[in-house]
Amino acid sequence: MINFLKNFFDKYFYDDEQYAALFILSIGIVILYFLGGIIAPVLVSILIAYILNGLMSFMEEKGNSRILALSVTLFIFGLFYLSIFLFLPFLSRQILLLVSDIPQIYESVNTFLSNQLAQYELQSNQLDEVIINAFSYVPTLFQNALLQLNSGFSAVMNALLYLIIVPFLVFFLLKDRDIFINHAKDLLPKKKNLLTKIWNDLNIQLYGYLRGKGLEMIIVALVTGFVFYFQEVNYSIILSILVGLSVLIPYVGAILVTIPVVLIGLFQWGLDSSFYIFITSYLIIQALDGNVLMPLLLGREVKLHPVIIITAVLIFGGIWGFWGLLLAIPIATFLRAIMLAWPTREDLIN
Predict the structure, then answer these.
(1) Could you tell me the end-to-end alpha-carbon distance of the chain, in angstroms, rounded to an integer?
(2) Which partner for 148 in 152, 261, 338, 340 could form a disulfide, CB atoms 3.0-4.6 Å apart?
(3) 3-state helix, strand and coil shares in percent for the chain, rounded to the nearest 5
(4) TM spans, by residue (predicted)?
(5) What's the rounded Cα separation, in Å, for the pair 232 and 4?
(6) DSSP codes, 208-222
(7) Mind listing the pLDDT tens digit for each residue in 295-331?
């Protein structure tokens, strides 16, 4: 074991710059692990500013002044932000409606499963025990979660914090972009070829991923909302948002969001032909997203094996919950960029 560690460090840590890079990365990991929840608004603001900076830099490269590029970028961000406020009342009403209908949804699904399982030779008490054990916690779970999202004090305070702090942070991050970048460079060691290589590789992959996923999320949510609206689906706004957000969690997201879609469809139509039309349209949206839209928008920006993607989602989702699910792929991309950019002693010799 000692020889293995000695050979490992001799192969990958033969220069002071590599130790400096390891130290900086370790500090970043420790901060994220222990303070990730506290500084979440800052991280979200940095992520939004990073995406908007692409538009701002593009306009500057076309010969526009920095003030004009900043103004147009902030105007677009402001419109998007304003649309969220205008949309919230509709979403809140549907959440309240869904909360009030959860007992009926539970009874409807319970009855459906009873009828379907009755064809198997199970005694009545066995059937009741299976259903009770499997679904007795569902109403309480969903009601508590939705009520917390809609009226919980903690959730409201967090939402207000994000709504107030995030736009200000995004504004100053974009306005004083060069100042922050210069300060960050001052904190780095003078010899930073490795860190520069890691950042260049990460910048190409991460920006392409975030831009593509952002567009994919918006398009899928709008198309789903449009289709569900004309099918007169109950809670169409909530479902379209969930389907849109599910694209941010590859593979796992599509599986998870299918559960409420099917349950609400069964509650509204049972096994009527309308239910099958509803599910078919939903599956068509998922198929077009996975086979047409996602390859078109993302291309091969993120070259991660499905096993690595699912593992990253499970690990970081377990550590940071909801934010871990959303940030799993960017973090995995970051780690991949480090592994590919990190030189070995053999690379130096060659």
Answers:
(1) 28
(2) 152
(3) 85, 0, 15
(4) 20-53, 65-88, 155-174, 214-231, 237-263, 275-298, 304-335
(5) 63
(6) HHHHHHHHHHHHHHH
(7) 777 765 566 777 888 888 888 878 777 777 777 888 8
